[in-house]
Amino acid sequence: MSAFHRLLGRIKLQMQGKHHVAGWSMLPEEAVAFIRSRGKQVLTFLGYSGSGYEDEMGMLKIARGVLVGFEPGRTLVNMGVTSVGVGAIYSLAKSMKFETSGVVTTVALEYPEDVSNSVDHICFIKDKQWGGYLPGSGELSPTSRAMVDCSDILVAIGGNEVTRDELMEGRKLGTLIRYFPAEMNHEAALRRARHRGLPPPESFFGSMKDLNDD
Fold it and tell me: How far apart are CA 19 and CA 68, in angstroms?
């Protein structure tokens, strides 16, 4: 997709006027500085996004169980901006009176319809990929760098490669980590494999086993 499509996405979000956008093309350190300026403990949820959950209600039950352990007035709930998959927690968090934020690549501007209406503050990170490690390196992409560095607590409910990479980096930094196993949506996972010309997945529990094997 071209820069033109991202510009259109930006215009659509501006016209909606539902979010405070802290920056449209931020560096990781700029996003971290903004999120820290909210003066709250940052609780970040990670997990499946586009592939969704086989049991979304079960995922939300886990999230609620985590959220009740925090005070809304002192906690900022952070995720990756989109409403799908783990992003469904945004609506739950808002119903429980939490302030919310999102850290996401500028690639997401190509899909403005996927941005959750329940995210208060958005940090678009100048990046060419969705997250995880940069190809052929042990360095996080700018989006994942910002996500990890702004977080006091990382809670993963299932998750694939990007979640795994962010948890690995968080663990290196001594960030508090919690992981709950969860299956991705089976149909979406099979469709993804077919699209990539890959065999069906051996497991629907994502890439988190790689973290345990590390």
Answer: 25
